[in-house]
Amino acid sequence: MSGLLRLPDRIHRELIAAAKASPDEEVCGLLAGTGDRADQRLPVENRLHRFDAFDMAAEGLIDAMRRIREEGWTLLAIYHSHPGTPPWPSETDLARNQYPEALHLIIGREEGDWRIRAFRLEEGVEEVELEVAPDSARN
């Protein structure tokens, strides 16, 4: 995967709205698409229902992965929110990372605003460029 993830403005807005709507627990899910463009957001329940950690519910995760496979998409990223902290991987995020090949998007509060940042967590923390594109833009 390249060092760039393209995110349509629609999905960018949906991710921030989901985080804002859930101030007491991390929201989570998958982003899928083709190439370096994430065209699909697949929310999955956080079975922990915690403010400081997430674990995707098995049934929802299986359904999302099945849909990705059936539609011929690629899993591009795992996303989750940090309701009260900046969008940077926590020690918990690093310790529980089960998909090092996927990018990780974190929605968090930074300087009072909601922001989204993308990371590769294979060997440490490497920030990846996140390009928010108009909804009609293609690769």
Summed up, what is this model?
With 139 residues, the protein is of the alpha/beta class. It contains three helices and seven strands.
Characterization of the model:
The chain is of the alpha/beta class and about 140 residues long. It has a single domain (about 5-135), classed as Cytidine Deaminase, domain 2, CATH 3.40.140.10. About 25% of the residues lie in helices and about 40% in strands. Strand 6 (about 115-120) and strand 7 (about 125-135) form a beta hairpin. It is globular.
Report mean pLDDT, rounded to a whole number. Answer: 94
What is the level-2 CATH architecture name?
3-Layer(aba) Sandwich
Name of the level-1 CATH class: Alpha Beta
Q: Mind summarizing the main beta sheet?
A: 7 strands, mixed
**Topology pattern, helix = H, strand = E:** EHEEHEHEEE
Radius of gyration: 14 Å
CATH homologous superfamily title: Cytidine Deaminase, domain 2
Number of domains: 1
Q: What's the CATH topology label?
A: Cytidine Deaminase, domain 2
Q: Classify the beta-strand content into a percent band.
A: 35-45%
Chain-wise SSE layout:
Blueprint: E1 4-8, H1 9-21, E2 28-34, E3 37-44, H2 58-71, E4 74-82, H3 91-95, E5 103-110, E6 113-120, E7 126-133
Parallel strand pairs: 1-7, 4-5
Antiparallel strand pairs: 2-3, 2-4, 5-6, 6-7
